[in-house]
Every structure is written in structure tokens, then in C-alpha cells.
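User: ok so my PI wants both of these folded by tonight, can you help

Assistant: No problem, let's get them done. Here's the first:
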Amino acid sequence: MNIIEWKKEKIKGVLSTFDRMIIKGYSFQLCSEKLMGYFLSHNNILLKDFGEYAEKVTKSLCEHIENIAKVNDRPYQFLYGNDNDKVELARKILEEKPVDEGLICILSNIEVCSTMNVIKNGKTKKLELKWGPRKCKYYYLYYLDKDFGFMHIKIQSWFPFMVQIYINGHEWLKQRLMEENITFEMYNNSFSYIEDIPRAQEIADKLVDSKISDKFDAMIKDINNFLPTIEETFSHSYFWCLAECEYSTDIIHDSRESIDEYFKSLVENAFYTFKCDDVMSFFGRKLKDTGFQFKGEITSDLRKRNQGFRLKHKMKSNQIKIYDKGYSIRIETTINDPHEFKVLKDVEKIVDHKKIVTEKKWLPMGKSIANLYRYAEVCKAINTRYINALPIPTEKELAIKKLENISNKKEVNNRVYTGFNLFDKDTIRLFNILADAGLLINGFTNKILRSRYFKDEEDCNSKRIRNKTTRLIDKLRKHGIIKKVGSASTYYVTENGRRLINYFMLYQNKKIPEYLSSIN
């Protein structure tokens, strides 16, 4: 049982979709010193004239973008400093000067950028191209788009004219719901009510098939008047990459009170129950018993915010978090580094030194927007694993009673099985092993359990240790903590066992330290 099944009377539905997405557009040829040299040569620009040429192109681009605001009769504003909340300012302009569709405003400021510069090589005494930092003007174009709703495009006004596009999956879905006349209510970028949630989910799933890169190509052609020159030289414009991607699963409740009555206990239990191995399992990573050596940092952070509580787990630069938002509990996965995950790709290889064949192969996932469908698959799986692993808050008296039951001996088929001493270090170690979310998802065998439980033994594969593990597994089964699936030698923690272990972990990590703190 997970929290959706547990609170089904109070839950109106579940909606999974993309949330915040940052897409970056690169003209990779202009980011390469060699290809930039080709670009200048193709257009008959000498290195000594690059500075003057670049300034001329930048001036033309700035005039073109600022003229877009004039043609559309929308505000243009230059901002001094970088501490301005541009999104809030754009929303304020939209409120004061409404528009049904199209450009809202254009804002600009000076920021540090990465660009190509011409420098003099001290050794060769010659000019050469060098990638490095400098300051230039950036433009922020805010739109109320018919496809993406409230969004913005950020463009660098100096070579190589990098682009950053911000869109939101909830805004995209909002536009689609309005098109189909499906009634809904929103609160702070979340849906508090949707008339037809199953249909909304069907629509949300179509975002990966909408070829949004074509839309971006069309929009940037109107903004960057230097793009035809780039396309004429390289026969290509921008490569679109997912710099950051958030995918959320909202558990929509019937009221705010329904969330408040248990959410604080839910996140506290999760914080004290989940370990590093659990976090790895949520992200689908292999565990220690497979021989995989993980190099990176895993952290969990619980905070109280003005809106409520938020629990965040990070594995390197990727993260999953749970927080309350209006009428919803949101589980949200953020992918900053997609290389931690795999995507199935066609790979060509040469057979018999002459024949080229194509085969499917799982490779590290890249940031190409073509992988958007895989981002959705990975994130949805992570959110689902997290929801299924969340420790359901239980009544204290009931949990204590169940812990007392497994501490007592049990007789099955005229055979007596001893109880578990909950204060014994071996029992604590055993329950910590069973609390691993990887075992919850994938199950475990006699070999896996003894390699962890008896890891300090000289030979954990000896007949004596194998027999001891078999007896321990039998004891766990008779107490209803684990079960065997079919004829396979694989065991899983039962639903009842998971509840017991969750409360035991909470008792061990929170209750006892609280008690000790109160008497000191």
C-alpha cells in the first residue's frame, strides 16, 4: 500500500507532467575555434577585423530585437544590475498592459558571457581565436504563447549568440485544457482541480510528441536576424539541449486540510527512514552487492518553508523532492546531469571488416531535446518508486503493538521461532539492511542477505553461514516480515514488514534520540 491507496477517499486524482524546463540553443560551430575560423574565412573576415565585425553584427542584432518591441507596441526596458526579478516584472507588465497572445515585453541587462575573442599569441606573435569570458548585453523576451503559455527566451547579443528558453509543462497543459474546454483551477503553478484528470493525463503525455524544437526554430528566426548568415555557412542553425528538466507527480487532494493532517509526519518519517542506498534505488542505480562502486555525494535535506514542508534528496547533481503545494502533494524529479541514466540508441558497427550493421544499445543519455521522451520515462519511474517507498504514517499505539508482537516468540506447525530483540545490535543491523529500498524493489536472495549481514565473517559463503542465513530467513518469514515469490529463491519485504521496519527505523533514528535529549 502506498499513500495514494492509503488516502484514496481524500484524493481526487494523480497527474504527472513536466514542470520547469530550461532549453539551451547552441550554434556549436561558432563555439569551436577551428570552425569559427572557417566561418570568418568563408565570410572573408580577417582576424584583425573580427572585433569591428562582431560589434557591427551585435549592433544590428540589438536594433532588430528592440524594434520587435516597437512593432508590437510592447514595453522595452534596460535593467541596471542583476538583482532584478525579471519574471515578476514581466508579470506586472502583463497585468498593467494585458495581451491575449504574443509578446509581453522585452527586458535587457549586462551579464558575463562565454564567447570567442581574438588575442595575440605571445610565442608565435600571431593573432588567434580563443574561447573565454566577457560582458555583453542579454535580451529577455517574455511571451504569452498559444502553445506554451507564459514563457521567455533569453539571447546573448555577442558571438556565438547562445539562446536559453524557459517553458513550463503545467503552462503547456493549461493551454491544452482550455482548447478542449476542460474546466480546471490553478494555484501557484499547480492544478487544484481538473474536471477530467484521466483526459488531462493523456494530454500531458503528448508533450513529448509535440516536436517543440520546430517551434523553437520558428521563434528564434524572428529574433536573431544574423541566423541566415550562420545557416548559409554551416547549413544548420541551433542545436537544442535540455539544460535542466523538472518532472512532477501531483497527488491532488479534496482540501488543504486533508494534506495538513498527515503531511508533516509523512516527510519526517521519510527523512529518518530513507538512507543513501534508498536514494540510489529511487534513481535506479545499482547497489553495493552488484559490485558497483558509486563515486559521488548523496544528501537528504528536510526544511520547513512558509508554504509547508519540503524534503529533498540529491544524488550528485540530480534530485528528487516532495513538498506540499496548494491542494497537492508534489513529488518532483530534477535532472541536471542526464548521463547518470541510459537511453536505447541505434549504434552502427562494422562486421567482417566491410559490412555495416545497426544494433540497439543502452548508452548514457545526453542532453539533446530528442531525448525528451526518455526524460519523461526516467522521471516518472523515479517518482513512482519514491511514492511506493514512502513510509505511511501509522498510529503510534498500533505500531508499538506490532513491534511487540515480533519481539515475542511465535509457534508455527509445532515449531517455536524466537522473537527479535529490538535493542540488540544484530537486530538493528538486520532491519537496517531490510530497510534498503533496493531490496524493497528488487528483492534479495540468501546470498545477498548473508553478504551484508555476515560481511564481517571470514567466509560468508561457508556452509555454516549459509545455513544460519537460511534459518534467519525462515524466522523472518514466520513473523510475516518477508515472503517468498513463486518458486524462485527471491524474497521480498511484505507490506506489513515494510510498515514495521519503517516505524522501527523512525523509533531508532528519532524517538530514542529525542528521549535521550529530554533526560540530559
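One down. Here's the second:
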Amino acid sequence: MKKKNEYNWLLFGILTIIAIFTSLYVLKCLPGGRKMFFRRCEIIFLLYAFFCLHCFFEVNSIYETMHKYRWIIYFALLVFFVVNCLNLSSLGMFDVYIQNGKGSEFISPLFGKSRPIRSDEWMVNVPRVLSGKYFNYSGINDIVNATKYNSLVATGSIIRDYAILADPSKWGYLLLGAEYGLSFFWGYKLIFGFAFWYELFLILTKNKRLLSIFGTSLVWFSTFNMWWSIVNQLISGAAILVLFFYFLKSKNSYIRLLIGMVLAIAGADYCMNLYPAWQVPMGYIILSIMVWMIINEKPWKTFSKKDWLFFVIDVLFMISIILRYLQVDAPYMEAIQKTVYPGSRVSYGGNSIKKLLGYFYVLFASLWDIGNPCEIGCFPVGFPLAYILMADVLFKEKKKNNLLLFLLVPLVILTCYCTFELPKIIAKVLLLTYSIPARAVDYLGLLLVIIMIVCLSEVYENKVEINLLESAIIVLISVCPALAYSVSYTSQKRVIVAIIFVGILAIISLISILSKVDKKYFNFKISTVFVSVCLTLNAMLVNPIMVGVDAILSKPAAKKVQEIAKKDHNGKWIALNSLANSNFLIACGAPTINSTNFIPNFSLWEKLDPEKKYEEVWNRYSHMAVGLSDTNESEFLVNAGDSITCVLSKEDMKKTGVKYLFSQSEILDTWKNMVTEIYYEDNVYIYQINYNN
């Protein structure tokens, strides 16, 4: 890096004062002891050191060096993440639900706020992962649902098997154990997802770095990606395109073979992350860009016989991973396809396009409670701006932009599907019956961001000119509907004021970016950086920074459950009147019948409902609350699409074979002669059932 002619000691002093006062604030005002303070200071110092570079080195030189050594920086950040056992899970919610304040000092986040709305992440996925550690992620796991599943099915794609190649983010669990594996999982997804999208935008914009950072921020730090706790299809999809591009471009056959093997893993990762509602629309984007790459590179002209042989080897490698994964995961796929929810879900499209207008409103979900931010999370700016820009660029370039023409195909398909219902035969042929409009629209938003960045690339290459007046008209036509929609979404005055303020800043910034304004304090470079920084800061507020899994395993109740489960591993458990507690139990190694039923527990329901009278209730993915009946009758109810309640009679309880009850309130009087209290602390009761009484 090139040093400045004169060091900026004033800025250095200001940064130092800010760092000191931030550290003092952390020490005095945030909960936690010495270890928490040390971890927080590490992060503060990392940011402080980065900003201090700007005091002593030329700014362009700093970012030139960072770009040059970006992959080394990515791996260094991953090491920092793992060594410090950091993760972005909201598992701190367990401290809210179970023995609040008890346990180690790492039961609450270092920074940020645990999000109860992300229950699929902290309440379901993390406990499933932790359940696998008691079997070292191999063989049969009989903790989840207290029934026997292979480890891949039980833990969510983690198993000591060839099939694990299909999900690189989970390799850390096998190599480093559960806690550090969770850090690797989050660090890998956060860092390398950003890395692959940056590389992809470099390809699509012909190495325009600032524009690529802008595009990456719009995608990776979008409310959609952050509130869904980092979407796997976004990572594997971008990785496929980047690796495929360099596979085609490479001049060395053996390097091409190596790239192809990594590409095969990325392809298997995409195929085996089984959520067709997102896979199908993302697949259209991937295919359209891959076709563009093939047409541009013309591999049939440059590949030797050895290259084609290596290509076949790589394809066979990918197929072998997929086939093994399908073989191991077959029980799950067979069961989930037969369920009422989500297996029988079919849609032909329509009535979801308006979701793309809500990008201003959802920006404030990290600050204020405004409904379900996961469902309304979207990609910012692209709608309807990208449609207008695409039409403008294709008209001015006389349809010479091949990439935009290829992207036009998925744009028309997804726009139609998200706007109105398609004829059934067309929806089936296009595979869109495997998706639903509420999910496909998310990837329409992604496609619009890609199109917008490609169009801006043409503007920045001076192939297309958009003057200031034209830019203002385009931006106002695009942003004003989104502002009106976002304002109509809420009645909270502070949110309305914030939306209008951010909307004005967005309008000014976008006009500057589109028209390439080049004033001293108002230019397209500053505007691009400003929008990127704002999106990054907003994203940092969504997920908390946690250390390890002490929010679960350091609880006194967790230690007691582990103690009992170790002595009596065959003893089955039920958590009463709670969804979180049942998953807490499997994280502690206790075989728990009512932990989240990701597939129906058929062996259990054959006993409770042999005539299948309540199949509509239990034949689904379900969070399962269990209560105790004070009569001789049981009740089975559907609360929502993925939530059921079972109120069990004594006779049906006997059928379950459950030995231990976990509760946060005293048991019903009518049941007291049937149970023995074996643990009580901080409103947590553990009872042992005595069926002879």
C-alpha cells in the first residue's frame, strides 16, 4: 500500500477517541463479564484498525490492495470467526424462554438482538445440529422425535458420509465439532456468499469494482437475505456461475479439472438444498447466465479432448454426490412428499408482484417491530427501475446486449407467474408448480437487481447515456410507487417519517448514479458508496453476534437433562406446553417425541391414531405443542400450517412410552399421582412418569 504524503493525525485522534469511548460504553452498559468484554473489544479493534489505515495510506491504494488480496482476506476473516467461536444465530432466545440469566456469560449476544421471528433457525436448526454431536454425526440418531433416523435426515444434512460433500458450509461440524462447526457454518455463508456475488458482478460488469460492490450490497445485504439468515441458494447459485465462467476461461486443462471439481460440489449443493420454491426460479437465472457465458466463450472451439474428458469426470463427480445424497435422504423425501403441508402445495401463480414495492418499509424491521420481516423481506431498488432501464438500454443499443436478451427470458416468465395465474399446463411445463408466487417473487427481485447492475455497466462504459433530466424522471417513476406502498403499509408516524427520509436520500443517490453526476460532494461514486454502506449497516443490525451455544448448554436445566439422558438414553421425553422447550431437550441429548416434526413420526401416530382419524392434523411438517388432558379424551388440533397441539390423556400418554416430562409450570393435580418430581430450579420442572400408579 502507498503511504500518504502527510499523515492525517486529526482523523487518527478522532478514531482513537471513538474507539476508547465505545469500549468504555461496552464495559459499563452491555451485559457480560471479562470474557465478553474481551471478545467485543476484538471486534471493535478490528474495525478501528481498518479505519485507521485511511489515516496513513492512500485510499485508492488501500482498496486496490484489498481487491488484489481479497481471497486471503476472506479466509483470514473466516479464521477470525471460527477461532472466536462467533455465529449469527438468534439462539440467545433460549435465555428468554428457559432460566433467564442463568448459565455462562455468553448466554446473550455480544452485539445485536436475538430475533424470535427466526424460529426456524434458532429453535429448529441449531438444536437438530446439536443433537447430532451425541452420535458424532454418524450412524443412527434417535434423539430427534425420539425415533430412529439416519444422521443426515435428523440433523439437517450433516453426516459422516460421502453425501456431506453436497454442503460445504457444514463440513466444519465434522472437522471442528458442534460449537466451532456452527461458527464455520455462519462464517462460511456470510463471507463466501459475499465473495461469490462480488466475483459474479465483476464478471457481469466487466470488472467494474465499485459497481460490483454496489450490486453485491443490494443482493447480499438485502433484507431478504439477512432476515432469512443467509439463503443457501444465493451462495451456491453465485458459486456455480463464477466457477463455470472460470472453467470456460481457463487455459490450463488441469486447473480446469480442479475448478470443475469445485463446481461439481457447488452444483450438488444447489441441487440438494431441497427447497423447490426457491430452486426453480433461481434455476432460471442460473441457466440464462450460463447460456450467455457459453455463447460468449464458445467452448466447442477451444476445448481439447482432454478438456472434454475432464468435463465428463467433473459431471460424473457431481452426479455421484447427488445420487449418494438422494440415497441417504430418501426416507425424508418420500415422507415429505406425502404430507398435507408442505407436500401437497401446488400453485399456478399470481398476485405477488406488489411485494417488490415494500423495500423501504422492511428496512426498518431491524429497529422496530413491524410484522413478519422474513415474509416481506426483498431486494431493494430493482422494481420497477430495472424494467425501465432494460427497455432504455436495449432501445439505445438496438438490442445488441446479449446478456440482457438472455435475462429477458426468465424476466418474462417470472413476471407473468408472479402477476397472474398461468394456465396449468404452462405452469407445469415451466416447473413453476414446484414453487409458489410468494417465493418466486423473491428471485424476480434478485433478477431485477442483476439487470439493473448490467444496465448501469453499459451506462458506465458510455455505451448508453442517461442525462440528468431523464435520470430524474426514471427514478421518480420507479421510487415514488415504492414510497407510497411502503407508507401505506404502516400507521406508525415514526416509521412513515423514516421511510420518507430514506426515500428522498434514495432518489437523490439514484439520480446521481444513473446520470453519472460528477460534482465535488454529489457524484455517482459517493452515492454508490453511500448506498452500499447504508445497506451494510442495516444488515448488521438484523442478526446478533453470539459466542458458541452457551445460551442452551450452559443452563442448569441443560446440565441436568444431559445427566439424565446420559444415564438413561432410552428414556423418552416430552416438553409440555412449549415449542422451544422440546427443541431445547434434543439439543441436550434427550430423545424428545415432540421436537419439531420435520416429517411425521409415523410410528407414534400408528399408536395414537391407528384409524387415521386425525391425519389432516399430524401428516405435516409441524411444531408440536403437547398438553395434558384432565379428562379421558385426547385432542389434536391444527393451529397453523406448520403448528399443531396435542392434548394427551393418560391412556394415550402410556402409548407414547414417554418416561420424562419437562415443564415450566407445576403439573396438573389429576396427574400428580402418576409422576415424581426429580428436578426443580428457576421455574423448570422435570418429572418422571410412573405408569404403575
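The first strand starts at residue 86 and ends at 87. The radius of gyration is 27 Å. Good luck tonight!
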